[in-house]
Amino acid sequence: MLVLDGKIASAAVKASLLQQTQALKAAGKRAPHLAAILVGNNGASETYVASKVKNCEETGFGSSLIRFTDDVSEAELLAEIAELNADSNVDGILVQLPLPKHIDDEKIIEAIHPDKDVDGFHPTNIGRMVQGLDTFIPATPYGVLLMLEHFNIETKGKHAVVVGRSNIVGRPMSILLSSERPQGNASVSLCHRHTPKEELIKITQQADILVVAVGIPEFITADMIKPGAVIIDVGITRVEDATAKKGFRIKGDVNYEQAITKAAAVTPVPGGVGLMTIAGLLKNTMKAYEGKFYHN
Ligand code: NAD
Fold it and tell me: Does residue 205 carry a catalytic annotation?
């Protein structure tokens, strides 16, 4: 059984980016710069953004963290995004989701200039991805592709099953795995909340590659796994646990202990896809810096 260790795969991506950044600096150029907007003080969002900023530092990128309180208006956020769009020293912009209920997520995402949309959520970039054009791939599915690439996992001709159809993970993942591209060319089944459980089990049992993004801790059990499958667990849920130092533990969507008895390879949680999402984000920021993706 192979542990698909996100620490190892993301370190390789980051080392290569650091080399590129060092070469840029040696040539007297500025480094890529990521601007992150964080609204409110949601614990998980704080952790994710802090980690993104820290990873920027580790790869020699510049970063800025722009904070707003929960009561920020949509107009204020849009004004900040307009300013970042116009700032030629900012290459990538990310707005940490979720946003407070009074703010329309889609309006905010669509306000980010597609050339700076390093999370890959803008409809223009999603459209380009669907058509197989060069673009920013949404950071989490991109991270999964980088993980598959790092560990030389063949997807061509395989049956890949994706559970979960969100715009940021499941749906783009299913499109990418079925596309004519490296880490693509699979036959893909996409399951979601309306897939009856008995049906879902039958489908996941046929998965050579199983990607799970539902947000339900330990949703996938041994009986749902094909022997020898590759399991990619995207789920991250904080589960209360009084015995844990922070009062909670991070759980994935796959029962890891059961999965390792049947699968050929499994991503751990934490230490798997989460780290690769950041690697995907950093690669997108470098791509934004190079500014060439609409020109090749
Ligand atoms: P979401 O809530 O937007 O979507 C969940 C999906 O699961 C939906 O499409 C729904 O149809 C499906 N679903 C729900 N119940 C189901 C069931 N019983 N059977 C089959 N499908 C079912 O979630 P999301 O934003 O895609 O995130 C999913 C999980 O991934 C969460 O735990 C989230 O925290 C995590 N996540 C991790 C990363 C990372 O970097 N590792 C990034 C984004 C999200």
Answer: no
> Domain limits at 62?
28-114
Backbone angles phi, psi at 19, to 5 degrees: -60, -45
Question: Is 19 among the catalytic positions?
Answer: no
Q: What rounded mean pLDDT belongs to the chain?
A: 96
CA distances to 99, 101, 109, 228, 280 from 105, in Å = 7, 9, 6, 40, 21
What pTM does this model have?
Answer: 0.97
- Per the domain annotation, does 75 fall within a domain? yes
Among protein residues, the one with the nearest Cα to ligand 1's atom 35 is: 235
Question: CB of 163 closer than 6 A to ligand 1?
Answer: yes
pLDDT value, residue 128: 97
Q: Closest ligand 1 atom to the C-alpha of 214?
A: 7
The CATH number of the domain holding residue 75 is 3.40.50.10860
Longest dimension (CA), the chain: 60
pLDDT digits (tens, 9 = 90+) for 216-226: 999 999 999 99
pLDDT band at 48 (very low <50, low <70, confident <90, very high): very high
